[in-house]
Design a protein that fits this description.
The structure holds 2 protein chains of 2 kinds.
Chain A (H helix, E strand, L loop, with lengths): L4 H26 L3 H21 L3 H19 L7 H26 L3 H10 L7 H30 L1 H6 L4 H23 L4 H5 L1 H9 L3 H25 L5 H25 L7
Helix pairs in contact in A: 1-6, 1-8, 1-10, 1-11, 2-3, 2-4, 2-5, 2-8, 3-8, 5-8, 6-8, 10-11, 10-12, 11-12
Chain B lengths: L8 H9 L2 H27 L2 H21 L3 H23 L4 H26 L2 H10 L7 H30 L1 H6 L4 H23 L4 H5 L1 H9 L3 H26 L3 H23 L1
Helix pairs in contact in B: 2-7, 2-9, 2-11, 2-12, 3-4, 3-5, 3-9, 4-9, 7-9, 11-12, 11-13, 12-13
Classes of the chains: A mainly alpha, B mainly alpha.
Chain lengths: 277, 283
């Protein structure tokens, strides 16, 4: 399996994207910003298809859209408290817009929209070319480095913003930087598992880690390891069973980890494993 | 077929109705808009709009699993949406004590896992490229007479049930404490309503796709509630807006050859935005 170049490319890009998503996802759950990740997943789909309709590289639309929305969220900060209905109507419209771009792309290219649409929605890690995989890996590496660099102050700013501010930690700037990092990661994860499934890589391993340990650094490491394991197991399963799409396999493995962690958490809570929290 | 708008609406209507698939689509859209608006009105009142999105995403693996198993798609939509509704109804008490961030991580992961499972079934089925968009974003073509009949029966059942529990449900939604004190079975009503919501979501998802049900279920009701606080008027308005949205989207989609999903969501957003603006201005 490792002899095949497309598997090696998928593993290279997938592993680094997984670690980046696991680390960032830990903070996403800690900061209760899963909703922002959800918003980015809708935007990623529409951005990629807008680029397809305009006839440019999908990744340009993908990164432009997710980073722009991340910056918008950062600018709005805590001021914009939209209610559920407004959010739902706007999210549905963003997807509707993506469908429009798909139609336009279909009209201009004369068919083939199914492949582009399905790829934007559900990813296709095996279809990454060598160059695409290397670029994705480099961006993911930069994301990991940036996340680790700000991990300590970010943790401080998340757990106790008032005290952090008093200690001279730039809380607002860190929050904005973090959202941009999540935006870039959303664009990366879309290439691996697709826009609709990126929460599976961003929220599931991190949610599991939060269930299993309360220590932040152990939690970050665990979240990254679980994400990495999901990608590896997912890719291996999908390689063995060719009708199993890699993105489905990865997200279902990540979901299974989360389900196990929830079960383990409630057993521990009930004292089944001999200790109580 | 070369659709074109003429200045004469009668001609346009005749052109629309000359194709059986459009007649089926209009009939199905009318049924789901009617039932959806009524149930959506209570969804907005009870602030359960995200439950309805989750149920809708859960029906995706149902539909694709049914395709894989060679069963009618409708059975998959209904089975999974109902199972999801019951799971939420009976699981919500246990979940209530969990913190907000963990809860949203669970909801997000369940959604992603459901979509992943649906995509898996579609891949196994083999018809992935065309059907994935139809299931996710809806389509006005390919609705059969049998499907319309099923929707009509389910719609009638749901509307009758809603009419039967409407009054106590309204009381329980407005003031749960008082209703409970008055002996209204609040919990049973909540479960019954979730089941009805599952039915409505499964019906609407068959027309506008699992990702866009919000636009036809919640948006018209929310728009109506922005415009008036009188109960009967706002229910009637919700139904009227939903019908307008469904018919206009189908007509525009037919004459411009663009997706139904784009028009449904755009009209829903436009109406909602106008209603919000009107309310702000009146203040």
């Amino acid at each position: 399996m490792f002899a095949l170049p497309f598997v090696r490319d998928a593993l290279l890009a997938g592993s680094l994207i997984a670690v980046a998503s696991g680390l960032l996802g830990y903070f996403v759950v800690l900061r209760a910003q899963v909703f922002a990740g959800d918003a980015l997943s809708h935007v990623a789909f529409t951005g990629a298809l807008a680029a397809a309709a305009a006839g440019i590289d999908l990744r340009i639309g993908l990164f432009a859209a997710t980073v722009a929305i991340a910056l918008l969220f950062a600018a709005l900060g805590g001021r914009a408290r939209a209610d559920d209905v407004t959010i739902g109507v706007v999210f549905a419209w963003i997807l509707g817009l993506g469908v429009l771009f798909l139609d336009l792309f279909n009209a201009s290219s004369g068919g083939g929209s199914g492949i582009v649409g399905a790829r934007a929605l559900f990813g296709s890690i095996f279809a990454l070319s060598g160059g695409e995989a290397r670029l994705a890996a480099l961006v993911a590496l930069a994301l990991i480095a940036a996340t680790l660099a700000v991990a300590r102050p970010l943790l401080f700013a998340t757990l106790d913003p008032a005290v952090a501010l008093a200690h001279g930690v730039p809380v607002t700037a860190l929050g904005a930087l973090f959202l941009v990092l999540v935006g870039v990661d959303a664009a990366e994860a879309t290439q691996a598992v697709g826009a609709l499934l990126l929460l599976g890589l961003l929220a599931a391993p991190a949610g599991a880690a939060h269930r299993l340990t309360a220590s932040p650094y152990r939690g970050m490491a665990l979240s990254a390891v679980l994400a990495l394991a999901s990608v590896w197991i997912g890719i291996a399963l999908s390689y063995r069973v060719s009708s199993l799409p890699p993105s489905s396999a990865i997200v279902l493995v990540a979901g299974a980890f989360y389900a196990l962690a929830l079960a383990a958490g409630s057993w521990a809570h009930a004292g089944v494993l001999g200790w109580r929290r | 077929m070369n659709p074109s708008f003429s200045a004469n609406p009668i001609t346009d209507l005749n052109e629309l109705l000359q194709y059986p698939f459009m007649v089926n689509a209009l009939a199905a859209a009318t049924i789901v808009a009617l039932v959806g608006a009524l149930i959506g009105w209570f969804v907005v009142l009870r602030r359960e709009s995200f439950v309805c999105h989750t149920l809708s995403v859960m029906s995706f693996p149902g539909a694709s699993g049914a395709a894989l198993a060679g069963l009618p798609l409708a059975s998959g939509y209904f089975a999974f949406a109902l199972a999801g509704a019951l799971a939420i109804a009976f699981g919500s008490r246990a979940g209530a004590r969990r913190s907000l961030s963990h809860e949203s991580a669970v909801v997000g992961s369940v959604g992603a896992a459901a979509l992943a499972l649906g995509f898996l079934f579609l891949s196994l089925y083999g018809g992935v490229l065309e059907s994935v968009e139809t299931l996710l974003f809806g389509s006005s073509v390919g609705i059969t007479v049998g499907q319309v009949r099923t929707l009509a029966v389910v719609g009638l059942l749901a509307a009758t049930a809603l009419a039967a529990i409407g009054r106590p449900l309204f009381y329980a939604s407005i003031d749960e404490q008082a209703a409970r004190a008055d002996g209204v079975p609040v919990r049973a009503l909540a479960i019954a309503f979730l089941v009805l919501l599952g039915l409505a979501v499964a019906a609407i998802a068959q027309i506008v796709g699992v990702l866009l049900t919000f636009a036809l279920l919640v948006a018209p009701a929310a728009t109506a509630q922005q415009l008036t606080s009188r109960i009967g008027l706002s229910l009637a308005l919700a139904v009227a807006l939903a019908l307008l949205e469904a018919w206009a989207a189908l007509t525009l989609s037919y004459f411009t050859n663009l997706s139904l999903g784009f028009y449904v969501t755009s009209i829903a957003l436009a109406l909602y935005a106008i209603a919000r603006a009107a309310r702000e201005l009146r203040r």
